[in-house]
Amino acid sequence: MDLRGILDEIAAEMATRSERGAPASYIPELARVDPGQFGIAVVTADGRDHAAGDADAAFSIQSVSKVFTLALALGKLGDRLWTRVGREPSGLAFNSILQLEHEKGRPRNPFINSGAIVTTDAILEGSTPRETLGAILRFIREAAEDDAIHIDKAVARSETAHGHGNFALAHYIKAHGNLRHAPELTLGTYFHQCAIAMSCRQLARAGRFLVNAPTLPRLVSAERVRRINALMMTCGHYDGSGEFAFRVGLPGKSGVGGGILAVAPGKAAIAVWSPGLNARGNSALGTEAMEMLARRTGWSVFG
Ligand code: GLU
After folding, report:
1. Annotated active-site residue in 155, 174, 238, 283
2. Which domain holds residue 129?
3. Of 169, 196, 223, which residue is a domain's last?
């Protein structure tokens, strides 16, 4: 298969699009990003990188970071994590507070904001925010084998100053006894984790541990990888998760920075980025590009 050719064709096609969605506006630092950009990178099971477009431009990974913090939290707490956060799709927006009242402060899954806040709170146990962020960065750098990966402090500051919705979620969870630390502490860590900057090439490399290929680095057990992938498939795109499964057929996690990490089990890790979002807060062109790639490669978990 001429993967390089396929990626070049996808990037060329995306360059012609005038409808590109709009960058997230509730984090001012993200609203300034040029929506004209598009990058795609794939690491195959043989360890080779393939990339096209703006694949080496750094962007804010935002909620894609939740895949890595989930892996860390499961490593630290094991199945005890599930007493504090569920494993069902929410069918609601990424930042919704609605179900929290009905479900008494136990978020539906670790990929919506409320669930990710609880997951980060779980990793914080026994450490300072600085140590916890160090552990998150170490995990991602080790996964990608790239020590240059860093936190974009301007994005973290921007979200902290405008993160009233997330503060509301954290306080509400705290009111139900499901947050162990002060909301400011947990959210300070969460906003910095979301502000990690990576390129598509770095993100695809960091995603290799989810491929479950004997040739690629393994940071967690094969069984745990399957479970993380299951949650990415059912919950990784918020209320657009069913649509992503239908159109792309691969586990994926999106972020409001416009990045998506997807996994073709046994075959490849894929990262795309385009800052313009669709109505559900997922990268508009990124989703299309994933669909094109899945169709042209035949990669799907559904046969
Ligand atoms: N930091 C963002 C927030 O909490 C992440 C959301 C996302 O990427 O979907 O609002």
Report:
1. 238
2. 64-196
3. 196
User: Residue 132 corresponds to which tokens in the numbers above?
Assistant: 């916890």
Predicted TM-score (pTM) of this structure: 0.98
- Note the Cα 211 to chain centre separation in Å: 15
Q: State whether 7 and 92 are in the same domain.
A: no
Single out the catalytic residue among 63, 65, 96, 158. 63
Mean pLDDT for each consecutive 10-residue tract of the chain (303 residues)? 96 96 94 96 97 98 98 97 97 91 96 98 98 98 98 97 97 98 98 98 98 95 97 96 97 98 98 96 97 98 96
Cα 49 to ligand 1 centre (Å): 28
- Is residue 180 a contact partner of residue 127, using CB atoms and an 8 Å limit? no
Alpha-carbon distance 43 to 45, whole Å? Answer: 7
Length of the chain: 303
What is the CATH number for 291? 3.40.710.10
Residue 128 CB: number of other CB atoms within 10 A?
A: 11
